[in-house]
Amino acid sequence: MNRIVRIDMRQLKAVIEEAPQEMMQLGGRALASHVVAAEVPATTHALGRANKLIFAPGLLAGTGAPNSGRLSIGAKSPLTEGIKEANVGGTAATKLARLRVKAIIIEDRSADDRLYVLTIDSGGATLVPADDLVGLGNYDTSATLRRTYGDTVGILGIGPAGEMRLAAASIACTDPEGRPCRHAARGGLGAVMGSKGLKAIVIDDRGARAAEAVDPSGFREICRQYAKEIQELKATKLISQYGTVGGLPYISKMGSLPTRNYRSGSFEKSDAIGGKGVAETNAARGGSFGHICMPGCVVRCSNVMHDKEGNFLTAGFEYESAAMLGANLGIDELDTVMQMEKRCDDLGLDTMETGAALGLAAEAGIFSFGDGRRALSLLEEIGQGSVLGRVLGQGAKITARVFGISRVPVVKGQAIPAHDPRKELGTGIGYATSPQGADHTGVIIYQACDTPEMITMSRAKQVNTCAYDSVGLCQMAEPTPEIMAGLVSRFYGWHWGPEDVAGLGKAVLQKEVTFNRQAGLGPATDRLPDFIKEEPIEPHQGVFTIADQDVDKVLVPE
After folding, report:
1. What does pTM read for this prediction?
2. Which of 213, 465, 470, 496 ranks highest by number of CB atoms within 10 Å?
3. Same structural domain for residues 23 and 64?
4. pLDDT by residue (tens digit) across 287-320?
């Protein structure tokens, strides 16, 4: 991959250039954050002309390496007001890599307030008006574009939430079956895409050929070894059978499942919306687990969910959606939770941010915990763009501010995503310190017992996450620095070792922290909300006990 596609939305012009030398060993999150840090003023408005939106495949995208089809999307976030990378599976990263595209950089915004579709193929890049797609959800948008450009294209797009520039808006990516059910969900990057005047990107890799490794036999061998290691993991076998939603009852039993706006860590009806029983119910309806979300996936944690009549309802029903739209809202009816997840997919909304916002709406008396019908109607309000809908669509922080609520589960303006840090203390450290805001980049479910070790673990987890987001590997495959170094070395001939992978991760993390400090997000923003420190959670009565001075040690360079 050596081509940078720059799109000037104001001039409606595409320029394809060779990647400069300083970008050649960067991919995914490393490349996206590099461009944001180098080219976006830290204090600019996230929805303004000076922000840029970057789509960057990982270094190993399109190579055939196991679980290597992840795409990083970066920009300044309208939600956190700092740097943001949102990570997604689907087919886009692989197709871009086959076209030798290292990154797409979207600059400025359309002068006429029209929406456009960007098409990228072996012949170049073109912008065309998207008047017929205005207001469409992601499913209709993808179906329309597939009819126009063919069933084999990959699509990145926004729904009505992105068009309205709501801070909870996601960017949808089609899966191998063409469904827009994979989402770069966090940070409101769908709003940035909407602010640029870009409705969708269509990627057509027909006729393109995959790049070849410098050391083909060595690369094939380490791919074989890595695939075997993934398949032998106990977690892989469980997730392939039951999906990530299969672990929801366990997290509830552990006491860290967000329940009724983080009032409890256990949901009494957890078995109804997660676990083995959900897989069995889905199988009886004709649905299935064990699907791939991207080419080359070995973990196979995706699913196809059917309703009571045996009809397709949604795909990619994840733990986070069940937790935040189910337990966090006290809703225990599986089909209702899945319908909410499907509606979020179609509108282009982060299910985690939306679930947190709806939890605060319940605190404000807008609806009652457990009232699934009312929760669905509130999602319709968001889609319609009513005043209430726009408030909720701006996410948890704005919803709380509008309704005068002080008990707000956010860090740096972004909702805490589906693990309660009063039980998972290591996760709490990651939520507090990640430059991405409360995010899965810092989740450590199995934590150590003492503070210094947890600090070390959190730092290592964040560094490793930066690395595999840059290389383009899925975190569910648990890639080690040794595996990442071996794959990159044999494909590119760069002679990387584990220390080079760690160095990449550290450099990315430091670059992101520096941008945030320049944007005004000082160390005082590396904090969990007060109620997490003060309010014991049921049933174990835990609070977050890590002192601020210890939290501040996490991102201090070693």
Report:
1. 0.96
2. 470
3. yes
4. 999 999 999 999 999 999 999 999 999 998 999 9
